[in-house]
Every structure is written in structure tokens, then in C-alpha cells.
Design brief:
Layout lengths: L2 H13 L2 E2 H10 L2 H4 L4 H13 L3 E6 L9 E6 L1 H16 L5 H9 L6 H22 L16 H26 L36
Antiparallel strand pairs: 1-3, 2-3
Length: 213
């Protein structure tokens, strides 16, 4: 699974309608260009591909009176919304060591109900435990990594990462169950996207040909 599809679908969905540069700006605002493959070229390619696949609807606008190329605004379709939630749920429960996918899912966690979010996160912990159990059939963490030579350090890293993920996820569950954050249906949501024209303090400033499309 790639995080870019979830990120782009989610960004468009939060705006209602957005052009490519707005999506790029939002993802840079979230720092996604640092922890995922959400680089400008990947974002614009994903928008065009998902429009072709019917997940997004592309609205073409004529050039402004000042000139310049036509600008395209994207709107998520019903099928795109289904795909967004499928990716979100799958990303929350999957344990595959890919931080970008987990980070993207956490960024859209409040698009679910509080109860469903907790249920999915508990399933994530269960899957981490199952993964850890399979690994430790062949590697005993208590005996240290040296039992497998320096290659054991790889196993040691994986097990420590799994334990850390499980502990962090349980902490998140505890915070959610204690009433943290505003989930769908509970009131005014946290605004995590930039308004049109709002300055992005985290923008890279790097120009890309797709910025004008």
C-alpha cells in the first residue's frame, strides 16, 4: 500500500474541492513531504491517475484574465470516498513497519467515530502481537541479538519497533477513551487544512510545473 493515495484523497475530501497546489500545500503543512513519498510530482500524478480511475472528479477552469494555463479543481467521488475509508481502516490495523502509512492514517483518524477508531487500534495491537509471536519463534529477545551474529541486530530492531508501536498505540487508545479529540458526529472538527491564500509556514518553496495546473 502507498500512503500517497490516502493522503491525496483525504486532503481533497477535507476541502470539498481543491486544486493540485492546495493539496500539495496541505501535505507540506502536515510535513508529509518529510515522512512520506508525498513529493510534488507524486501528488500531481496521483491526482491525475485517481481522476482517470473515477475516484476524483476533475473540474476544468478557463485561464484567468491575467493569462496562464487552465487550472483543475478536484472533487472526491462517492467511489473515492469509499476508497478513502477502505485505505484508512486498512492502514490503521496493518502492521508492516511503514511509518508513512501509519502516519497518514493517524492524520485522518478523527474521520471515524470514536468507537470505531478504538476498535481498529485494538486490532492493530492484536496484529502486532501476532507478528511478534511469529518472529520470536525463531529469535528470543531475552537472549540478545548476538545469538544470530550481527544479523541479530535486524531482528532486535524489528522487535523493539513492534513493542514501541504497541505501547504507543495503547497510549493513543487510552487518550481517545478518556475523551481526547473531536471525532465525526461529535461537534466542530479540528481544522487541519489551509484556507485559500493562507500562508503555509512549512512550505518548501520549491516550484514544480504542476503548481500551475
Amino acid at each position: 500500500m502507498s500512503a500517497i493515495r490516502l493522503l491525496v484523497l483525504g486532503a481533497v475530501r477535507q476541502h470539498g474541492r481543491a486544486h493540485g497546489y492546495q493539496v500539495r500545500n496541505d501535505l507540506e503543512y502536515w510535513g508529509a513531504h518529510e515522512w512520506s513519498n508525498a513529493k510534488p510530482g507524486s501528488i500531481y500524478h496521483a491526482l491525475k491517475q485517481m481522476a482517470k480511475q473515477g475516484l476524483l472528479h476533475a473540474h476544468e477552469f478557463a485561464p484567468s484574465t491575467a493569462g496562464g494555463p487552465p487550472r483543475t479543481e478536484y472533487e472526491i467521488t462517492d467511489w473515492g470516498t469509499e476508497e478513502f475509508f477502505r485505505l484508512l481502516r486498512e492502514s490503521l490495523v496493518s502492521y508492516d513497519q511503514k511509518m508513512d502509512i501509519q502516519s497518514a492514517a493517524i492524520g485522518f483518524l478523527v474521520e471515524l467515530t470514536r468507537d470505531e477508531a478504538v476498535t481498529l487500534l485494538k486490532e492493530r495491537i492484536r496484529r502486532i502481537g501476532a507478528w511478534r509471536g511469529a518472529v520470536t519463534e525463531h529469535y528470543i529477545p531475552e537472549d540478545g541479538p548476538e545469538q544470530l551474529g550481527h544479523i541479530g541486530e535486524i531482528m532486535n530492531l524489528w522487535v523493539h519497533t513492534a513493542d514501541s508501536d504497541s505501547a504507543w498505540t495503547q497510549g493513543l487508545i487510552d487518550r481517545i477513551e478518556s475523551g481526547a479529540y473531536t471525532f465525526v458526529g461529535e461537534g466542530e472538527p479540528f481544522v487541519g487544512v489551509l484556507a485559500e491564500g493562507q500562508e503555509n509556514p512549512y512550505a518548501t518553496g520549491d516550484r514544480h510545473p504542476g503548481d500551475d495546473g
